[in-house]
């Protein structure tokens, strides 16, 4: 057990005596001793689960039962075992020092390396739009003002050419017409750009 949090001579039952009495594992709780929260009735033990083993069939069935569309891949190795994520981390570290907010951009979105070496991340769906809506100290948001489409991030220190290309790539993944210019905002700058079609954008797609 973990070290005691209270003198064991204190009045019994009203407070937890060990740290692990506060640790509730909802997926496997029924295989373990009841926690303090369960004993006190704060949590209904009957609603907790008894999942065990390395298989993920039961978790995947729960995902299906709850109708969840987006979820992390089941596995015990963490993000670094995802080859796409680890490749993005390696690529980003070769380019610049990483910051905390990079933990978001390596996990989601389409990741591009532009001609002058700037990095661009384009959301793939509404959920990723929300996740990319962060204040990144080293990247500017690309917001599409004249159409509906993905939120994107591009390096603040990107060249003018790379920023314009980033805007065109973002427009290419939006609801746009090929031969029409659209108003967008990159950081604090507004401009009108033509979309770059997805086929040509793939030239810069890293992962």
Short recap of the structure:
The chain has 207 residues and is of the alpha+beta class.
Characteristics of this structure?
207 residues; alpha+beta; 2 domains; 6 strands; six-stranded antiparallel β-sheet
Termini separation comes to 44 Å
Describe the largest sheet. Answer: 6 strands, antiparallel
Q: Class by helix and strand content? A: alpha+beta
Helical content band: 25-40%
**Beta-strand segment tally:** 6
For the residues shown, what is the average pLDDT? 88
Shape: elongated
How many H/I helical runs? Answer: 7
Radius of gyration: 24 Å
- Strand line-up in the sheet with most strands: 1-2-4-3-5-6
Strand content: 5-15%
Q: Which stretches are poorly predicted, pLDDT < 50 over at least 5 residues? A: none
User: Oligomeric form of this entry?
Assistant: single chain
The arrangement of helices and strands along the chain is HHHHEEHEEHEEH
Number of domains: 2
GO molecular function: ATP binding
Keywords: ATP-binding, Nucleotide-binding
Protein name: ATP-binding protein
Organism: Helicobacter pylori PZ5024
Question: Helices and strands in order, then pairings?
Answer:
Elements: H1 36-39, H2 57-66, H3 83-95, H4 102-105, E1 110-113, E2 119-122, H5 126-132, E3 139-144, E4 152-155, H6 160-172, E5 182-186, E6 189-193, H7 198-201
Antiparallel strand pairs: 1-2, 2-4, 3-4, 3-5, 5-6
